[in-house]
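Operator note (shift B, R.M.): manual run for Probable guanine deaminase requested after the automated queue skipped it. Running by hand, logging everything below so the morning shift can see what happened. Input copied straight from the record, untouched. If output looks odd, do not overwrite the archive copy; leave it for review.
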Amino acid sequence: TRKYRVVNNPTVYVGTFIHSPRDDARKLDICEDGAIGVNPDGVIEFVERDVQALDAVLDKYPGYKGADVVRTQPGGTQFFFPGFIDTHIHAPQYPNAGVFGSTTLLDWLNKYTFPTEASFSSLAVARTNYTRCVARTLANGTTTAAYYATIHVPATNLLADICSAAGQRAFVGRMCMDHRGLNPDYYRDETADESVANTCLCIDHIKSIDPSYELVSPIITPRFAPSCTEELLTKLGKLARETNLPCQTHIDENHGEIQLVAELFPEHESYAALYDACGLLMPKTILGHAIHLSNREMELIRDSGAKIAHCPVSNSALTSGGAKVRWLLDCGITVGLGTDVSGGFSVSMLETVRSTALVSRHVAMTDGEHCKLSVEESLYLGTRGGAKVVGLEDKIGGFEVGMEWDAQLIGLEMVRKEEAVEEKAEFAADEVLDKLAFESCREAGPVDVFGWESWEDRVAKWVYNGDDRNTLAVWVKGRKTLFHYPTFIDYDNL
Ligand code: GUN
Ligand code: FE
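Run finished. Output pasted below as returned.
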């Protein structure tokens, strides 16, 4: 079978490495002449800087004699960067990416989302859409994703299988939603007990394919308070504690939603207080959105150790609001980034990093300059921040000895003016340059480097202009992932 298996040789990655320092979001650590040794288990065994001769490094690490070598091209346009960590994405909503019209959260759920998710009762629908979603997120450099699936057990198990086969690190959560008010009759759990029992079936399945949750882990997933009875929320809180599994849900995304929670659960002081009373606020809890938190709710979340998935593309698209990320960070809350497909219209975490910077500027226009998040900080949130949110900060999000090789090779396009002119000297220089400019615009990625840029400038150009054409290769746990649909998954042997 082609199930996930590490079959790598020891590999040395050589060239330029860029990542965020573990404890400093405000700058990037740029290493131009580095060598990183990754063992067959995908674990980083050495990080060497200022490497003059690779042979001298290999002499120091005998296990790497004859190792595979992967180099960034010289010339300052390629670099290794940690894989992105998408802390909030709805895999079954992928077919709707970009389709939301002028809706806001609650009518968006009814018009687009519930009907689409309900269609995953068909395994054929699930296979097509989940394969696309995993392929597309990998192609965009997402090495870890926290997925919400649907209520369907077979489809949710298939999503776990596909992640495992494709080699994407994933948290896969069966959607829990038993309330008879908001949820349509055609798409909900019959009872709280059925919801919990089906969740346990999905946990058992993941245990059977990945017993130590090395790559794929279950995650307890109550949709959000208005979709759940208090009985279900309480039972899921208990299940999360008993199994020590992570948990994910939505909070304070939209004013209408918050109003609904107040009406449905009048005995609780706030949205966060309800989750807390049900045992759902824990260090392993990922709360999506958290746009309209009161001060008291912020304190409850901070004191519980729960983490926040910031979803700027979705928050803008559904006009939910501008989350006060600087405030959350200053309060000591851990924040990562989520695409929130398809509230968010893009599977791209690079787009999400970009929107993090941009939305923070909108917040800054009302709340002050200090709210602006830099390119460096936004990238930190998409890598190191996300790693903390999913509890894997010792494994992923940066390049350090003992961490795992979850990485992407980024390539930008250099405009080679002088060479081009020399090569085709018989033409008038202007003519050649124009011709080349048009050719390279058609063939190359979206980012042009002219040579004068610092590494920080190049990274900023990537963040603001780049896309998946700049992601040349993606590795998870040392294994190069194949993301070209549909040849890479052997469905008969899942
Ligand atoms: N709240 C409840 N369900 C959803 C969902 O699917 N997406 C978003 N963005 N918010 C939700
Ligand atoms: Fe969401």
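Quick read of the result: The CA atoms of residues 272 and 297 lie 6 Å apart. The chain is about 40% helix and 20% strand.
Leaving this for review. - R.M.
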